[in-house]
Write a structure and sequence with these properties.
D-amino Acid Aminotransferase, Chain A, domain 2; nine-stranded mixed beta sheet; D-amino Acid Aminotransferase, Chain A, domain 1; globular; alpha+beta
Length: about 300
């Protein structure tokens, strides 16, 4: 666990970062968070830091939160936090929350705190080469219910239900459908399909979080010469795909070889998926001459 964390402009010991049990964001899910990764190559790099912090601030703006710090302060705090904890491969979690323990839904007059932790981190979905997923009976929330473009704590109750259902049923992860029955995303990942050499992924109108790793894979795929189509994907298209994979900051690129008990393709990691994994791993560690602008040196 992190030894040093950042809270409202100060570096403190992890065990000293405490909030009351009645904290508003703990009770009502009113927090905003980001997930960011750093990687150790020849140097330590943070992957797409600018884009993550832009999304963090956009999420707070959607919820009209009174932010006291600017983007540059948060970026510098993250870099210094990695140095202080001597981290290479890490997961970084900025978290904005109402630092108030008065009971009641209203956030008017409540102050906002920002907390940042960075911890050593490996593979989010375990050491398996590929995973099995279950189509959840729970539908993905949509913007008529909650703002899906914001990484808000309360949104993820929906994801927790889907993930729990999949695990209880013996699968590794869930796929969620949108309100129209089209593929939306995993419980905490974006979804890609490959069919006849073309890469498909749900469009932003399918209630997805606009993933930064998703955007990276779209750009890398096009750079490699693949056609990428963002479109509505009916549920049954997953079953007849040649390849399926998840993307996400935590999940990185995770191959999926079984959906609802149906084997995808030949049941092995596909050629395009494997190529993207190899290229992505080089990019994030600074071992590729391309996409260098995505890396922030610590």
């Amino acid at each position: 666990m992190a030894r040093i964390v950042w809270l409202d402009g100060r570096f403190i010991n992890y065990e000293d970062a405490k909030v009351p049990i009645l904290n508003h964001s703990l009770q009502y899910g009113s927090g905003i968070f980001e997930g960011i990764r750093s990687y150790r190559g020849d140097k330590t790099y943070i992957f797409r830091l600018d884009e993550h912090i832009d999304r963090f601030f956009n999420s707070m703006k959607i919820y009209n939160m009174p932010v006291k710090h600017n983007k540059e302060e948060i970026k510098e705090a993250i870099k210094e936090l990695i140095r202080k904890n001597n981290l290479g491969d890490s997961y970084i979690r900025p978290f904005a929350f109402y630092n108030d323990d008065r009971i009641g839904l209203s956030v008017v007059g409540k102050s906002l705190s920002i907390y940042i932790a960075a911890v050593e981190f490996g593979k989010y979905l375990g050491e398996k080469e590929s995973i099995s997923v279950k189509t959840s009976s729970w539908r993905r929330i949509n913007s008529a219910i909650l703002p899906v473009k914001a990484k808000a704590s309360g949104n993820y109750i929906n994801s927790i239900l889907a993930n729990m259902e999949a695990k209880i049923s013996g699968f590794d992860e869930a796929i969620m459908l949108d309100q129209n029955g089209n593929v939306s995303e995993g419980s905490a990942e974006n979804v890609f399909l490959v069919r006849k050499g073309v890469i498909y992924t749900p469009s932003i109108s399918d209630s997805i979080l606009e993933g930064i790793t998703r955007d990276s894979i779209i750009k890398i795929s096009k750079f490699l010469g693949y056609e990428v189509i963002e479109t509505e994907i009916p549920r049954e298209d997953i079953y007849i795909s040649d390849e399926v994979f998840f993307t996400g900051t935590a999940a990185e690129i995770t191959p999926v070889t079984n959906v609802d008990g149906i084997v995808i393709g030949d049941g092995k990691i596909g050629r395009i998926t494997r190529e993207l994994i190899n290229v992505y791993s080089k990019v994030v560690r600074g071992h590729s001459e391309h996409f260098q602008s995505w890396l922030t040196e610590v």
